[in-house]
Amino acid sequence: MNAPATQPSVVPFDAARLDRLMDEAGIDVLVATSKHNVQYLLGGHRAFFFDYMDAMGVSRYLPVFVYVKGAPDKAAYFGHRLENFQRENHPFWTPVAQCNSSGSVDTMQKAIEHIRKAGLATRSIGAELSFLPMDAGKALQDAFPGSPLKDALFVLERIRAIKTPEELKKLKIASEAVIDSMQAVIAKHKPGATTAELTEALRREETSRGLTFEYCLITAGTSLNRAPSGRVWGEGDILSLDSGGNYHGYIGDLCRMAIHGEPDAELVDMLGDIEEVQRAAMKPIKAGAMGSEIYAAAEARLAKSKHHNNMHFLGHGMGLVSHEAPRLTSTGPVPYDDYDAHRPLETGMVISVETTLAHPKRGFVKLEDTVVVTGAGCDIYGEGARGWNRGGTAA
Fold it and tell me: Could you tell me whether strands 96-101 and 71-80 are parallel, antiparallel, or unpaired per DSSP bridges?
């Protein structure tokens, strides 16, 4: 059952690009262990049994993908025994594929044996240090004591930075389904529903559209607390829905606003300002533009708003992970450097553009959009429902 599988003739990622990134990082052998990077490197495989959890018995699920610089023919995958069912339906491309493990250390040990048996150069091994359990990491380091373990997060992030047409298709499906789900929840609920009830309703709507619901950051009325609770969305109250739902691992992450009743002039002005900041940020987005141009355009428009003291702009890359390349700022909520602020954007990069107004009296007002870099400019996924959506309008 665990003999080498019949694999497709084409490696499902840009191997030359990965080889170049590994060479620049001084990595000979790459050991990927996160669900998202294993999914990417295997061309879409995601263990269905462990989609919601990692814990299993006395250990945890740990997928291990081994890639050798310049030698895709020596690639290997080591997984859990239950993955054999998926492997039978869709064979992995790797020349070696073993799915007969049940924990973190035994899976890593099989990867170690493969590296030794293949006689691979191991002067430097790249591993996902943030996604490598201590027991498996120790086993890997002990097996090759003369080979320093380098963090491969940056290498793997860069290989995923440019999305393929198939990846973009999934991101578009996810984005549009999240917007459709939000509109359905808003329309179906009259005054009196709690934010916890609205979150559960959104989960059901997203699931019914083929998404895996991940989260909903939600506010109602004048509250700035974004956790689902017993707070009621009442008559005249505003509502913010900021949700992430994924389609085959790719995240649709958007935010839209609603109200029970009619927005007054101040609320119309607030959301209008946010919309203009969003559009200003999107305007310079195209292949060849420097990443810093996005922030420069957004912040110039934000500074003109009378609400600027309470407004905040954020732009970040997204895809299989909600904050990934391109990296546009070093001062955002997720700490990383602004690597892409000083480099040209590339066709196929995906950017989440979001503007937030945390008003001390009126509440939380926000828009978030998913934008894809193209040669001519950009495409917006899930562009609908940008204004004040009226609650309780469904028959």
Answer: parallel
Radius of gyration for the chain, computed over Cα atoms and rounded to the nearest angstrom: 23
Using alpha carbons, list the distances in angstroms from residue 101 to 61, 98, 105.
9, 8, 9
Question: What pLDDT score was predicted for residue 8?
Answer: 47
Hey, which residues does 149 pair with through a beta bridge?
125
Q: What is the tally of structural domains in the chain?
A: 2
Per-residue confidence (pLDDT) for residue 3, from 0 to 100:
44
Residues 142, 182 within the same domain: no
Q: Which of 160, 182, 208 is the last residue of a domain?
A: 160
AA identity, residue 375: G
Type of residue numbered 136: A
Decide if 346 contacts 17 (C-beta within 8 A). Answer: no
Give the HSE-up count for residue 161: Cα atoms under 13 Å, Cβ half-sphere. Answer: 22
pTM recorded for the entire structure: 0.94
Instruction: Give the domain extent around 312.
Output: 165-390
Looking at the structure, do residues 196 and 272 belong to the same domain, yes or no? yes
Give phi and psi for 250, each to the nearest 5: -95, 130
Residue 152 sits in the same domain as residue 263: no
pLDDT of residue 9: 54
**DSSP tag of 289:** S
Closest to 174 measured CA to CA, from 391, 388, 387, 382: 382
Provide the 3-class DSSP secondary structure of residue 370: strand
In the chain (395 residues long), the average pLDDT of successive 10-residue segments reads 50 97 97 98 96 91 97 96 96 97 97 90 92 97 93 97 98 98 98 98 98 97 98 98 97 98 98 98 98 98 97 97 95 93 98 98 98 98 96 91
Residue 3 maps to a domain = no
Which residues on neighbouring strands pair with residue 289, listed in sequence order?
none
Q: Look up residue 120 and give its two tokens.
A: 């691979």
Let me know the angle formed at the C-alpha of 229 by 227 and 232, rounded to the nearest 5 degrees: 115
Question: What are the start-end ranges of the E strands in the chain?
Answer: 29-32, 55-56, 59-60, 64-68, 71-80, 96-101, 125-127, 149-151, 212-220, 238-247, 250-259, 311-317, 350-359, 363-373, 378-381, 388-390
Q: What pLDDT is stored for residue 4 in this prediction?
A: 46
Residue 142 in domain: yes
